[in-house]
Design goal:
There is one protein chain. The protein is mainly beta and 306 residues long. Strands 1-2-3-5-6-7-8-11-12-15-16-17 form a 12-stranded antiparallel β-barrel. Strands 9-10-13-14 form a 4-stranded antiparallel sheet, with no helix packed on it. Helix content is 4%, strand content 58%. The N and C termini lie far apart (57 Å). The protein has a single domain, classed as monomeric porin ompg (Porin). It has 1 helix and 17 strands.
């Protein structure tokens, strides 16, 4: 095998397209896990994560941009020189909350359709792609409510619908399925103080083209905030990501550590509500990245209630 081909194969195994979003799949790109550290776009959710809205139909748009110029190894040091990653995505989410109850909870369904652009530079390699990412569906979302506490549970399914080629450095799709149990919890006090989190655990199937199986992943979005009247909310939020099992190639552990990744992000979040619409802006700088890029993520989210 030629040196250039060997180098390219290594990049694919280590960074494997560095995808920010599976769909809302959206997640931060990564060195750990084959498609870039998880199908979910960590940090996508913020206020009222555990509260399912009233029965009706809703549209939510996630516009995000991620940039990183540092790729960390298992000790948090620079892994390679000349690394640069940029990912932009627009994710369309359609939610329908029914009038039916299951186990005392409101029943909802949703789907997410991501449109993704990514640009990757690593060592002497460079690639960029754009297109439809991996679509997410969830046919059973259940939401429970009380005066100050709200909880939502579901199982998101990531469908490998995005384009993929094992010889490309950048890939929009991941070429494997992900099954993600979810639990969202929100506490909102009478005075407007809020604590919210969305807990997720990803179970990945094997990539048939590369025989690479990404490890299982625990990750959580969180927000600590305060609601000012009915229109404004401000706070701090971000995400925590930790890969719990090792990556495998042809059934064997990858490297000496299995390339288990982790990262933490925290930054400001501001939300404004107007009639049947909501607007949210977030900045999420990353810290303590291991086997992953370390950079900054920006969000502008919009929600509309029909």
């Amino acid at each position: 095998m030629k040196n250039g081909e060997t180098f390219r194969k290594a990049l694919i195994v280590l960074v494997a397209a560095a995808v920010l979003l599976g769909p809302i799949a959206l997640t931060g790109p990564v060195f750990a896990t084959e498609g870039g550290g998880g199908a979910y776009p960590n940090g996508a959710e913020d206020f009222m994560m555990g509260a399912l809205p009233p029965p009706g139909t809703y549209f939510k748009n996630y516009l995000t941009y991620y940039t990183a110029s540092k790729l960390n190894d298992n000790n948090g040091n620079d892994l390679v020189a000349n690394f640069d990653l940029k990912v932009a995505a627009d994710v369309l989410r359609f939610i329908h909350v029914t009038n039916h109850k299951i186990l005392g909870a409101n029943w909802a369904v949703h789907t997410l359709i991501p449109l993704v652009y990514q640009d990757v530079k690593l060592g002497g390699g460079k690639d960029d792609r754009s297109g439809l990412g991996d679509i997410i569906v969830d046919p059973i979302i259940l939401g429970w409510h009380s005066k100050n506490f709200h909880a939502t549970a579901g199982l998101d399914i990531y469908i490998p619908s995005g384009s993929y080629n094992k010889d490309h450095l950048a890939n929009i799709g991941r070429n494997y399925w992900t099954f993600e149990p979810i639990l969202g919890i929100t506490y909102l006090s009478d005075s407007g103080f809020e604590l919210s989190t969305k807990l997720m655990y990803d179970i990945n199937t094997e990539n048939d083209d590369t025989k690479y199986k990404s490890g299982q992943e625990f990750h959580a979005d969180y927000t600590i905030g305060y609601h000012i009247g009915k229109e404004w909310a401000v706070g701090l939020g971000g995400y925590y990501y930790y890969q719990t099992t090792e990556d495998e190639l042809d059934g064997a552990k990858v490297g000496s550590t299995g390339f288990e990744g982790r990262v933490f992000a925290i930054g400001p979040v501001v939300q404004y509500g107007y009639r049947n619409m909501g607007f949210t802006f977030k900045w999420q700088p990353e810290f303590e990245a291991r086997n992953k890029p370390e950079g900054d993520k920006f969000w502008f989210n919009f929600v509309y209630a029909f």
